[in-house]
Amino acid sequence: MIITIDGPAGAGKSSIAREVATDLGFAFLDTGAMYRAITLGAMRRGIAFDDVLALVDYAQQANLSWKDDRIDLDEQDISVEIRTPAVTSNIRYIADPPEIRGCLTMQQRRIAEGRNLVTEGRDQGTEVFPEAECKVFLTASPEERAKRRHLQLQKAGKESTYEEVLMAQNQRDLEDRMRPVGRLRAALDAVVIQTDGMTSCDVKQAVLGIVRSNL
Ligand code: C5P
């Protein structure tokens, strides 16, 4: 069984998808981490971001591996570095070209083979697993998402204002909604959960309810 959880940045997809996967005993895939890892690898290798052929070539042979919350590139833990603003600001060079998306789509399908999987991202229910048994689109207002993200950053001791977080998030939403292939949108057969005012426990129960109704 494949469960897809798509939605915009800051909607809480990763933590909910991870918890749902644990509850159901399914594998979990964070496809944003894949896009981030390829971005970081290309930066480290000095591959020009306008050289799509070189980027596809790199995406095909990048040495990525996962274990629980940890993601390794060339056998080195990159779980923290892929979340830095430098990587985030360059992701569009990897996420925009359809050729690179095609390569990551193939890898994501390969990972799903023979597995029960909860997979989260932007295009999982639309492009990568259009036949998935259960599709969720998790969202919240831009203000609510920015508020949550700002709180997270404060807790982690990272300086930023709410307005800065909201502006960066709006920019990323725009980029994610505008790309020609794999853009952020709900699949026609996805159940949309608007999470404003819900606790993460409420959201998890809502997702599990949708999964049960698809069994
Ligand atoms: O989910 P996360 O915020 O880590 O994703 C980082 C970026 O990777 C997104 O803003 C989006 O541009 C890209 N992405 C994508 N398709 C996915 C997952 C992520 O284009 N399936």
Quick structural overview:
With 215 residues, this protein is of the alpha/beta class.
Can you characterise this structure?
The protein is an alpha/beta fold and 215 residues long. It contains ten helices and eight strands. The strands form two sheets. It has a five-stranded parallel sheet. β4 and β5 form a beta hairpin. It is globular and about 45 Å long. The chain binds cytidine-5'-monophosphate. The site of cytidine-5'-monophosphate has 13 residues, from α2 and α9. Keywords: ATP-binding, Cytoplasm, Kinase, Nucleotide-binding, Transferase. It catalyses: CMP + ATP = CDP + ADP; dCMP + ATP = dCDP + ADP. Its EC number is 2.7.4.25. This is Cytidylate kinase.
How much helix, percentage-wise, in residues?
40-55%
User: Per DSSP, what share of the residues sits in E-state strands of 2 or more residues?
Assistant: 15-25%
- Which strand order do you get reading across the main beta sheet? 2-6-1-7-8
Query: What is the arithmetic mean of pLDDT?
Result: 96
Helix and strand element order = EHEHHEEEHHHEHEHHEH
Shape: globular
The structural class is alpha/beta
Low-confidence parts lasting 5 or more residues at pLDDT below 50?
none
Q: Could you describe the largest sheet, including whether it forms a barrel?
A: 5 strands, parallel
- The end-to-end distance, rounded to whole angstroms, is 9 Å
SS element count, helices: 10
Q: Gyration radius, to the nearest Å?
A: 17 Å
Which cofactors or ions or other ligands sit in this model?
cytidine-5'-monophosphate
Instruction: Please give the number of β-strands.
Output: 8
